[in-house]
Structure formats: C-alpha cells, structure tokens
C-alpha cells in the first residue's frame, strides 16, 4: 500500500502525466492524421485536404465531442492573402468548410470555434512546409 501511495505521489509531483501542452500534443499520433492543439476544454485536430478544412473536436481525454449547435471559422493566411472560411458542423465531432483555393505550404490558420453553450475557443496552426530533397 505504501508503494502505491509513493508512486501516486511521484506522478503528481512531476506533473508529467497531466501535461497537455501543444508541444506534447505535437508528439501524439492523431486519429485523422492532422495537427492537434489544445484550446480551453478541447483538443482541436486540423486536417487540410486540398481546399477542404476539417476540424475534429475532442475533450482532454480524447473523447469525441458532438458538434451539433457549434459554429466556427478558419482565418487562413496564405501566399500574402487572408481568407475567412466558415466552419459548419459535419458528422459527429467535425466542423468543416472549404477555402477558395488550397493553402500554400507554411500557411497559417487561426481556428475559432464556439460550442453549443456559446463558449469560444481558438487555436493557431501552421501547415508544414515540404521537406527538402536529399
């Protein structure tokens, strides 16, 4: 019993189990292959496929959060241009919208979401640039 108490105390003392920084989330494999950021009570996973922008919403336990009654927007800064894309609820835990054109590598996106209780959250993303050929 003392050993269990000692282990629990050590875990709480280090705080590592409870770490939910963007740096930690960047090391995780995401369910849909996108980038994941923390925003308030939620994790936002951004997936960009051509012009399609999809944001998957989960809580801190990675439990999908239904997006019925939610709204959102993606502010896209790409190739010196700024576009705002409305994000609407899709299947189960998705918000989705379509950009006027595919964002360039290195583009920055600011994702803003408003949940059904009107709580607003925001996260910033940067699309990866292509890796140089060796």
What features would you describe in this structure?
The protein has 134 residues and is mainly β. It has one domain (2-126): Immunoglobulin-like (Sandwich). 13% of the residues lie in helices and 43% in strands. It has two helices and eight strands; from the N terminus they run ααββββββββ. The protein has an eight-stranded antiparallel sheet with strand order 1-2-3-6-5-4-7-8. A hairpin with a 4-residue loop joins strand 5 (81-89) and strand 6 (94-98). The longest helix has 13 residues, at 2-14. The chain is globular and about 45 Å long. The termini are far apart. The model is unreliable at 5-19 (pLDDT under 50).
Structural class: mainly beta
| Number of E-type strands | 8
Which spans have pLDDT < 50 for at least 5 consecutive residues? 5-19
Kindly report how far apart the N and C termini lie: 55 Å
Q: Sketch the topology as an H/E string, one letter per element.
A: HHEEEEEEEE
| Count of alpha and pi helical runs | 2
In the CATH hierarchy, what is the class? Mainly Beta
The CATH architecture classification is Sandwich
**Percent helix range:** 10-25%
Number of domains: 1
Instruction: Fill in the CATH topology.
Output: Immunoglobulin-like
Largest sheet: 8 strands, antiparallel
Mean pLDDT, nearest integer? 83
Strand order of the largest sheet: 1-2-3-6-5-4-7-8
């Amino acid at each position: 019993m003392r050993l269990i108490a000692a282990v629990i105390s050590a875990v709480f003392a280090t705080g590592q189990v409870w770490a939910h920084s963007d740096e930690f989330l960047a090391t995780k494999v995401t369910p849909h292959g996108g980038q994941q950021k923390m925003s308030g009570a939620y994790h936002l996973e951004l997936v960009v496929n051509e012009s399609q922008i999809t944001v998957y919403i989960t809580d801190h336990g990675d439990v999908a959060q239904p997006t019925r009654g939610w709204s959102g927007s993606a502010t896209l800064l790409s190739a010196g241009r700024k576009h705002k894309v409305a994000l609407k609820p899709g299947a189960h835990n998705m918000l989705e919208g379509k950009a006027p054109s595919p964002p360039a590598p290195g583009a920055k996106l600011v994702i803003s979401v408003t949940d059904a209780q009107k709580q607003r959250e925001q996260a910033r993303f940067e699309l990866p640039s292509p890796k140089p050929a060796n």
